[in-house]
Write a structure and sequence with these properties.
The structure is a single chain. This protein is an alpha/beta fold. It is about 25% helix and about 25% strand. The strands form 4 sheets. Strands 3, 4, 5, 8, 9, 16 and 17 form a 7-stranded mixed beta sheet that branches. The protein has a 6-stranded parallel beta sheet with strand order 12-11-10-13-14-15. It has a two-stranded antiparallel sheet with strand order 1-2. Helix 9 links the parallel strand 14 and strand 15. The mean pLDDT is about 95. It binds NADP nicotinamide-adenine-dinucleotide phosphate (NAP) and zinc ion. The site of zinc ion has 5 residues, from loops. The site of NADP nicotinamide-adenine-dinucleotide phosphate has 30 residues, from helix 1, helix 4 and helix 5.
């Protein structure tokens, strides 16, 4: 076991504070990773605040992890000390069920092991995430970082990126696809960048008039203000694919209305009951409303390769770990452009 310094919340209402805990000794198939950067996902805030009623305290959040290998277990063959690596939202799964066989470990029939706020499959211990100095992860769940991908900006790809990439690939977003992104935050801004890189014609639908200029700078062709009912009505039937990243309960009907024939809208943000959906809106135009949960290891590796090749990099605001509570506060107030990333050297300074 190795002592690790991280930041934890001890209940739903107190700030995160420094917290020492043990990382397990390496199993044969484990990789030990020194964490250099960790992204701050809206899910981290949801879970710290127990929004989903399943938080195990103390909680060490963080599932957008970039670093390098510091040690490997006796049976590890794919990684060696010094390799640049990354870890996303899950650190284990059963590896036996149909979804695991189909490279969709995030849908494991026996439940994937989340990077934090989960239970280790062997010991039952609570998993602790990437707001920490280092982490131990089963080899199969460690991503290889392409050399051409700048590690300072890669972390948000591990959750925000794969969450939007996976449905975009599933529904064949490509050259000329008329695509809309609802909510220009961590997930949304990557949907714009990836959509543009795939050749789609991207529209941003935002509740924030102040983001219009940014949306265009990110590559969006058009911007729609969700509160502008005339503009929304004029865009009826306009899109083949919509990705909805709004992080809380909302009314999806105004967005469904924008789908054209056989159009698909994918919900990735709101995990709670939605406002009632108008059946007629789905039936007309043969529309589909779908959901999507992150992505499997192979898909993340594919995304990292795509981003290295096309130099698609998240827009990151670097913070010190000491600023994490302020960052959560700003996230709640929709004040981030477009992902906070913790530079872990700040944690090491604390340790000296
Ligand atoms: P974020 O950075 O806070 O972005 C969310 C965006 O949604 C905001 O920037 C804002 O964009 C818009 N928004 C916020 N509140 C709204 C409201 N009440 N009504 C309308 N629009 C609103 O969050 P994120 O990190 O992108 O995460 C988004 C959601 O996805 C979170 O709920 C997170 O837990 C979830 N998530 C899901 C998965 C998955 O596997 N499905 C994975 C990761 C995260 P505008 O200012 O442009 O309106
Ligand atoms: Zn996340």
């Amino acid at each position: 076991m190795t002592t690790c310094l991280g930041y934890a919340a001890h209940d739903a209402h107190s700030p995160l504070t420094p917290f020492r805990f043990e990382r397990r000794a390496l199993r044969a198939d484990d990789v030990a990773i020194a964490i250099a950067y960790c992204g701050v996902c809206h899910s981290d805030a949801h879970q710290v605040h127990n929004d989903w009623n399943n938080t195990l305290y103390p909680i060490v959040p963080g599932h957008e992890i970039v670093g390098h290998v510091t040690a490997v277990g006796s049976g590890v063959s794919r990684f060696k000390v010094g390799d640049p690596v990354a870890v996303g939202c899950q650190v284990d799964s059963c590896m036996q069920c149909a979804p695991c066989h189909d490279h969709q470990e995030q849908l494991c029939a026996h439940g994937p092991t989340p990077t934090y706020n989960g239970k280790d499959r062997h010991t039952g211990d609570t998993t602790y995430g990437g707001y920490a100095e280092h982490i131990v992860v089963r080899e199969q769940f460690v991503l290889r970082m392409p050399r051409r991908l700048d590690p300072r900006y890669a972390a948000p790809l591990l959750c925000a990126g794969i969450t939007v990439w996976n449905p975009m690939r599933r529904y064949n977003v490509g050259k000329g696809t008329k695509m809309a992104v609802v909510g220009l935050g961590g997930l949304g801004h990557l949907a714009v960048k990836l959509g543009v890189a795939l050749g789609a014609e991207v529209t941003v639908i935002t509740s924030s008039p102040g983001k219009a200029e940014d949306a265009r700078a990110l590559g969006a062709k058009h911007v729609l203000l969700s509160r502008d009912s005339a503009a929304m009505a004029a865009a009826a039937n306009a899109f083949a694919f919509i990705i909805d990243t709004i992080p809380s309960r909302h009314d999806v009907n105004p967005y469904l209305m924008l789908l054209g024939r056989e159009g698909v809208m994918v919900l990735v943000g709101a995990i709670e009951p939605l406002e009632p959906i108008h059946g007629g809106l789905l039936i007309r135009n043969n529309r589909t409303l779908a959901g999507s949960l992150i992505g499997g290891i192979q898909a993340i590796q594919e995304l990292l390769a795509f981003c290295a090749e096309h130099q698609v990099l998240p827009s990151c605001e670097m913070i010190a770990i000491q600023d994490i509570n302020q960052a959560f506060e700003r996230l709640q107030h929709n004040d981030v452009k477009y992902r906070f990333v913790i530079d872990m050297t700040s944690l090491r300074e604390l340790n000296q």
